[in-house]
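Risk register update: the risk of archive-format incompatibility is retired. Evidence:
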Amino acid sequence: MRRGHAATVFGCAAVLLAYPDEVSFAEDLHAVGTGLRRLPAGQARSALEECTAWLSQLGARQAAACYVEAFDMRRRRSLYLSYYRYGDSRQRGMALAALAGAYRAAGFGLAPGELPDFLPALLELAASHPAGQALLAEHQPALEALRDALAEAGSRYAGAVSAVTSALGPLDRAGRATLARYRELGPPSERVGLEPFVPPEVLGAGAK
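Archived output:
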């Protein structure tokens, strides 16, 4: 997929996969619809259109309830992509610190308290900077595991994630092996005696 079209997919998916804002909900969906008209016909556009149409039938509060049901406290349906590889461990903390550095290098700030592996934040970066697409590609097995888990649960959010994986293209051999491991085992359990760790510089990475 062309870079400009991929950026549009990532930007639209970032909106659809963010927690619904009661004030701007209708305006956000209208902006997505405008963006989708710039995309050629294909799997990514169709998947985003279906998700947008579904959300458009809901009020902001109902959409928020669906969002919480889809993502909150679900180990196999987490929007925090490094969680699939590391679970809650110090290794994940180091990965988050490296991701935060990539945001800074791209001149892209994070909202206070927002973690850099949060999918909507990564999608915003990918929509505006080539480094973001490279980071998404590194986490594509997690994205595909998330898509599969959402589809299995019957969540319409699966379409938005599917559009992102379609824009990224097929997994390579190593990625397919990683995805198979995620499907079988899910994220690793927290290691005994090891507290989850997030470096302070990640939590204070700056504001947009």
